[in-house]
Amino acid sequence: MIFIVLFVAYLISWLVVLFSFIMSKKIVSAPLQCFTGSLGQGKTKIGVSQALKRLKRQRFKYALNLLDSKEIPVLYSNIPIVIKNSIIMKLFLLIFKGEKLPNYERNVQLKFEHLIMTEEVKEYSVVFIDEVSDIASQYQFDNPLVVQYIQTFVRYFRHFIDGYLIMTDQVTDNVTKPIRTRIGKVYNLSNFRRFLFHWYKVDVIDVFLTEDIQTIESEQLDSPPFFFGYLPYKYLKKIDWTRLFNYKQYETRAFKPLYEFSNLLEKDLDINGGLFTKYVISLPDNSDMKKKFRQQGFITRSDMLDYINKWQLALGIIKDKKQNESA
């Protein structure tokens, strides 16, 4: 009798899961997506899931020659992400393109050079930026690299790349206005919770950004829609040797090494295959460059490269050409 009860409960739980999935809010496939919310509300989880989903879609299109590109789309990210290539994906690429993919691969590290367009972002690729205000905060409203170059990258992203740009932040007000006003719609997340052990629900409100006005549909406040998805326990990722469903896509505390008192070892860092990182995208903040920008209203590409070179020399990121030649 107890087995019958357990079996019925099992069937009912799956019906509840199916119903929750059907009733959950679906994310629109837009070139630019932004997720906001307080700490631990699932911004990065959903953002990473969306980035991997869009990458998979782009690669299938590439395999079927639906993209006008000779290079496979890749994922650029400022945090380490593990990309799992399915058997179907690998077969498609092998059959139609003669290209081999590994079972697992890592993202390409997103650098400020990509954002200011001094290094190429491959066409039809996916770009994921976690905590975008670290790169383009409201306090950098007068930094020409943000106002002129990163704004241009965001503004013409579909024209230049025709891929997907996915961002997260805790509050959109922290993002500088030239970037913030181009987002359009923000998914604001709250009340993240587990549901029936291995699933999650998180309430979501669409925030529409038009000029300096934020608009929220009133019915969402009374009965907010929700996102629904799979959330395995950590132990499942360790004991599931098949890794069919339970593999670690990213580290929820990726920036932990930045904390001075962190006890992480070097082996845990992304440079050694780990998912923690010390890498933070920082931009030159030169007073002469800002002054010239205020006077002219723009900074030429040659001037920008000159300012960046001086900044990198000052930080010791690069060495002077004369020093290199003498060495």
Number of domains: 2
Q: What is the number of E strands?
A: 11
Structural class: alpha/beta
**Terminus-to-terminus distance:** 82 Å
Q: Flag low-confidence runs.
A: 321-327
> Taking Cα atoms only, what radius of gyration do you get, to the nearest Å?
22 Å
Average of per-residue pLDDT values: 87
| Overall 3D form | globular
User: What composes the largest sheet?
Assistant: 9 strands, mixed
Helix and strand pattern: HEHEEHEEHEHHEHEEEHEHHHH
Please give the count of helices: 12
Helicity, as a percent range: 25-40%
Strand content: 15-25%
Quick recap:
The protein is of the alpha/beta class and 327 residues long. It has twelve helices and eleven strands.
What labels describe this entry?
single chain, 327 residues, alpha/beta, 2 domains, nine-stranded mixed sheet, two-stranded antiparallel sheet, 12 helices, globular
Provide a descriptive summary of the structure in words.
This protein is of the alpha/beta class and 327 residues long. It folds into 2 domains: 23-283, no CATH class; 284-327, no CATH class. Helix content is 36%, strand content 18%. It contains 12 helices and 11 strands. It has helices spanning 2-23, 43-63, 87-96, 112-115, 144-155, 157-160, 177-180, 218-222, 234-239, 287-296, 301-315, 321-326, and strands at residues 32-37, 75-77, 82-84, 104-106, 108-109, 126-129, 164-169, 185-195, 199-210, 213-216, 226-230. Strands 1, 2, 5, 6, 7, 8, 9, 10 and 11 form a 9-stranded mixed beta sheet that branches. The radius of gyration is 22 Å and the shape is globular. The model is unreliable at 321-327 (pLDDT under 50).
